[in-house]
Amino acid sequence: MELVEYPDRDLMMLALADRLASELAEALRHHDRVSLSVPGGTTPGPVFDVLSEQALDWDRVAVVLNDERWVPEDSPRSNTGLLKKRLLVSKASAATLIPLYAEAPAPEDKIGALAEGLAPHLPLSVLLLGMGADMHTASLFPGADNLAAALAADAPPLMAMRAEGAGEPRITLTAPVLTGAMSTHILITGAEKRAAIERAAHLPVHEAPVRCVLGQATVHWAE
Ligand SMILES: O=C1O[C@H](COP(=O)(O)O)[C@@H](O)[C@H](O)[C@H]1O
Question: Family assignment (predicted)?
């Protein structure tokens, strides 16, 4: 894993947004349509604020979350809600959102249709991931019901996931989609996550699911 340490969070968010924009621009030079996958949660908002202002051919960019909590979009827990407020605004409002949520009682009710919508946008051109202190990435949580199947080489692109630490049911991109991305970045902050990602490099992947992408990822960290 390549680790980039920044003197502070503000600088990191600016530099990372710039890097993602350059990679998207490069991908757009070679392909008609490109895809960007991003995390939800509490960390990436400031990157989204900067990225959404970048001059890119956003109308040729498809944006998909790494994972979604099975809650309606107006829930404060909705990653889609965050994306719509912080990334798919300003210049980036021209991008196409590939949904990972549709109104239904459970992810299994909609997973087929959501996977069909995702398929034309794979492999991912640019992948930004987050990580929890428990070493989950996307919704690949240690101890989750479908973790082994989602880490398998023949996993379908999208799977439902339930885990003790996850709160509500989830839907997540699986390991083959994450490891198939053309470019992979992980954004983390704080001492606890720094220690966790260093520990993850020495643990089996079912204990530290983020390990499935560590070999190919650039990790961006600031205190
Ligand atoms: O639940 C989630 O957690 C991770 C990490 O989130 P953070 O709040 O610690 O930044 C996130 O990457 C994932 O997309 C999200 O659904």
Answer: Belongs to the glucosamine/galactosamine-6-phosphate isomerase family. 6-phosphogluconolactonase subfamily.
Interatomic CA distance for residues 46 and 26, integer angstroms: 23
Rg from Cα positions in the chain: 16
Confidence (pLDDT) at 60:
98
Number of domains in the chain: 1
Atom of ligand 1 nearest to the CA of 189: 10
Q: What is the dihedral angle through the alpha carbons of 163, 110, 61, 86, rounded to the nearest 10 degrees?
A: -60
ipTM for the predicted complex: 0.99
Please tell me if the CB atom of residue 79 comes closer than 6 angstroms to any atom of ligand 1: yes
Q: How far apart are the first and last CA of the chain?
A: 18
- Taking the centre of ligand 1 as the mean of its atom positions, its distance from the CA of residue 106, in whole angstroms, is 20
Compute the distance between CA of residue 107 and CA of residue 55 in angstroms, rounded to an integer: 35
Residue 72 burial (C-beta neighbours within 10 Å; 0-12, 13-18, 19+):
exposed
Q: 66 CA distance to ligand 1 centroid (A)? A: 9
What pLDDT digit, counting tens, does each position of 85-120 carry?
999 999 999 999 999 999 999 999 999 999 999 999
The tokens for 158 are 């999208």
Residue with the two structure tokens 């798919």: 88
Looking up residue 10, the CATH number of its domain turns out to be: 3.40.50.1360
- The kind and range of the H/E element at 9 are helix 9-30
